[in-house]
Specification:
Oligomer: single chain
Number of strands: 25
Helix content: under 10%
Largest sheet: 16 strands, antiparallel, barrel
Strand order of the largest sheet: 3-7-8-11-12-13-14-15-16-19-20-21-22-23-24-25
Number of helices: 5
CATH topology: Porin
Order of helices and strands: HHHHEHEEEEEEEEEEEEEEEEEEEEEEEE
Strand content: 35-45%
């Protein structure tokens, strides 16, 4: 196996920047600090490559003790060490010199949904065609604080809106509400690869930056933690392994949190993975790289995970009258244990991933298989298959029968930080519970944009 230094990886991952002009390679927060292209850590935003994976595993810092060498914009020091010694208090520290904020614009430029028909062929709802401009904005932020603390997150909801209906003196009134939400992950690094994190999003088990630019792993079939506290331990100069253990409150930021009912140990979760070969999970170096242009390395990774909820019922908050979930939410409502596994592989320009999960109480089988191919470093195609089966029939709609979908998609990276993605979703079977109201499985075509600067 060829030995590769971290410096050589940086030079290799910078190659895609040559395909676009300097103006077209505007980069977000972390990249501004190091003055590098987005492709140093991403194989097309937001999918992380081996260097990006090692960057996160090191607490959002450069791996292999390379932080100081690669930092182009040093932190501003505040206070003095002599003063700190004199008053015996933490009066010295630092804050970022670089701009820690980035703007990400997203939205569907074009969307189409086919007719909805009854089994007799009568149109229940006509097809829909819409076009728009990027209508949703998010502010991403990221910074290192001193030698051990890093913060990453987003403030989103700008441009989005929901309609709320309230009753005032017996009269229903509808108002448009624009919810602003903050998702944060704060990390304390005890040592390289050993981190403690607090947050309400971007957990190591629920978010891997996998969209059209990557393939599925077990994160796609397991419940996502809400407000969490987790330990992450990663090792590997070549290949390697990682273990994540955490506890989460059932309530999320958009759900009322009842202090007497929602606690940090509502949900317990565990996630582990082993990278058999390829770039190190901790170093991002010393691996066998398959494609020098998009930063992918030839590798096989096997993972498994489980989530346990001690509560399976929903509660009503006496103060607000709202139903508060103190266990899993959404499709996992009423479940106490979900477990699954996955395998991912990369060979040159080809990616393949498969993930499965099983519910103990509801006995739902969740399956996802995805295959991707980089036609060019700036053009990525993927074919995804997903299905939820309900053989035990312990839950009714929408899981009355298998609901398999096939979704081909193509992503065009106009610049390292700007992409256009077209996705066609086709349902191969129809739902039986809508025999009188119409077919709800409508094939869709969406053209979406993502731009960050």
């Amino acid at each position: 196996m060829k030995k590769t230094t971290f410096a050589s990886i940086v030079s290799v991952c910078m190659v895609p920047a040559l395909f676009w002009s300097t103006e077209g390679s505007a980069i977000p927060s972390w990249a501004r600090k190091y003055q590098v292209s987005c492709y140093m850590c991403h194989s097309g935003m937001p999918q992380r490559n081996a260097v990006g994976e090692a960057f996160k595993n090191n607490g959002y810092r450069m791996p292999a003790n390379a932080e100081a060498a690669f930092t182009k914009q040093k932190d501003i020091q505040i206070g003095t060490t002599d003063w700190a010694k004199g008053v015996h208090a933490p009066v010295s520290g630092s804050f970022p010199q670089f701009d820690p904020l980035s703007v990400v614009l997203t939205g569907n430029i074009v969307s189409y949904k086919e007719d909805s028909r009854t089994p007799a062929g009568v149109i229940a709802a006509k097809d829909e065609f819409n076009y728009n401009v990027p209508a949703t904005a998010a502010l991403f932020f990221g910074a290192t604080i001193g030698d051990n603390i890093s913060v990453f997150g987003e403030v989103l909801g700008f441009g989005g809106a929901t309609v709320e209906t309230d009753t005032d003196a017996g009269v229903k009134k509808s108002t448009v509400d624009t919810p602003i939400q903050c998702n944060v992950r704060a990390v304390y690094q005890f040592s390289p690869g050993f981190n403690f994190a607090l947050g309400n999003n971007f957990s190591n088990v629920s978010w891997n930056g996998v969209t059209v630019g990557g393939v599925v792993n077990v994160s796609g079939v397991l419940p996502a933690p809400g407000t969490y506290a987790e330990l992450n331990y990663t090792q590997g100069e070549t290949g390697g392994y990682s273990i994540t253990a955490g506890a989460s409150m059932a309530a999320k930021t958009i759900t009322p949190i009842i202090a007497t009912e929602n606690t940090i140990d509502d949900i317990l979760y565990l996630r582990g993975k082993v990278k058999l070969f390829g770039a190190g999970l901790l170093s991002g170096a010393n691996g066998e790289f398959g494609n020098q242009y998009n930063g992918l390395d030839n590798q096989v990774t096997i993972g498994a995970g489980l989530s346990y909820s001690k509560n399976t019922t929903a509660l009503v908050d006496a103060a607000t009258g709202l139903t508060v979930v103190n266990g899993f939410t959404a499709t996992y409502l009423g479940e106490s244990l979900v477990y699954g596994g996955d395998v991912q592989g990369v060979y040159n320009d080809f990616l393949l991933g498969a993930a499965v999960s099983r519910d103990r109480d509801l006995e739902l089988n969740n399956v996802k298989i995805e295959a991707g191919y980089y036609i060019y470093p700036w053009l990525f195609a993927k074919l995804a298959y997903a299905d939820v089966s309900n053989a035990a029939k312990r839950v009714t709609a929408p899981y009355d029968v298998h609901q398999p979908t096939i979704a081909p998609s193509v992503a065009w990276y106009i610049a390292p930080n700007v992409s256009l993605t077209t996705t066609y979703t086709h349902f191969t079977k129809e739902r039986s519970v809508n025999a009188t109201t119409g077919n709800t499985n409508q094939d869709t075509v969406i053209l979406a944009v993502r731009a960050g600067f």
